Predict the 3D structure of the following.
Amino acid sequence: MLRSSDEITLQKRGISKSQIEEQLNNFITGFPFLEIRSAASVNNGLFRLSDEDKAKYSAQWEEYLSSNADVLKFVPASGAASRMFKDLFAFLDSGDTRPKGDFEKKFFDEIKNFAFYEDLNNACYKNNRQSIEELTAHEKYKDVVSDLLSENGLNYGSLPKGLLKFHSYPSEKRTPMQEHLVEGALYAECNGKVNIHFTVSNEHRELFEKHLEESLPKFEAKYNVKFNVSFSEQKPSTDTVAVDTNNEIFREDDGEMLFRPGGHGALIANLNDLDYDVIFIKNIDNVVPDTLKEPTVTYKKLIGGLLVSLQKQAFSYLKELENEQISDAKMAVISQFCEKRLNNHHPDIKSLKGEELRKYLTLKLNRPIRVCGMVKNEGEPGGGPFLTVNQDGTVSPQILESSQIDQSNPKDKAIMQNATHFNPVDLVCGVKNYKGEKFDLLKFVDKNTGFISLKSKSGRELKALELPGLWNGAMSDWNTVFVEVPIETFNPVKTVNDLLRKEHQ
């Protein structure tokens, strides 16, 4: 399958021959469904914080920040905004001269409520010598949409979400990138410094850096902090090869192999490069205006406090487990911590004795740890929290996508459909061990949790391979704790009209 010329291509990308062979084999064999025991719910693998818990963990987070903590806010921000405007692109391509669908009608009926309205109006003047009102009065709706999406207008159809104007304030308009700066100042500031890392695409990096340069002075002065902002891009070495319908390498017209980005799971490599003690992870489009930030800030502090509390206890136990003469009574206490607090269930834990139990507990505790906020299921799309069976027979919490669950199995399908909570991507991670050394996060990925999808290129069908998702299989072998957080903390923007919801006004 591989040609001699392919080896040069692989070398340039930093991809080994064995990686390609593994990927090609994945296309042939596919990926197994995960064995699920149940969906996580309150008192079954998912914690609901009491008022006493909230007071305790909030205080612990503030205490942690007052120490010499090294905290980072990690924001995947490479996603293009094109999918936000799918309906408007369809309108442009249609034979209609005026909006007919509900989506387009709502867009134009409430167009003045968008934070980008003024910019769009200026673009319409520049390109058409007419305002939005004048253009729509003459049924030139497509000119308005074109000026929003095209390169000679605002170019919103090609920009990343992070650089679009989302929210209006009396004296400013803010992008998601700016809202994440504000969030960072409100819950991740430590000793006057806020660390934030954005993963961006190569083509947009310069635009992000320019926007940051323009934004920093204002927000540093407003919140009296110093921002330390860094960027990275998905590595070429995490791209995956595409194949045709016969599982042969898909080649471009010039014979070159076609590679595709490996999905957000590729970002585990970016995360692995960062040397911080605690890392928050949240998607770029899940932001709200200042008037609605309070629940988000409160619960970020709470899950941060819970993380450092669990980590402190785990570190203490790991030091005790270094002693080969540790008592059975103490190991029983540690076993309870694993089972009750970390939800790591061994089906026959009582059969493990002495050195075997000590090694098992050490293995289970000495791993990266994450606390994941989960919201009640109200019909929003996304993966969810489940209790799944691991390769060693133990059961632990995992975030799964529907594609990882065998929906042809009535039992598994029923479990999925009756799930009470779903994943809003609200994580805080501890990535160092009890000796202060950073874990190699790539060693905790379950490679059997990738995903294959059907795509096309130049009219030819192809199969694409996505790596295990960042908060799915890429963190499979972490210690995972689920906590219920309020729905108010989840306000993603999937379509442009989502910006008209009260949460974004």
User: Anything to note?
Assistant: The mean pLDDT is 94. The longest strand covers residues 369-376. The longest helix spans residues 294-321.
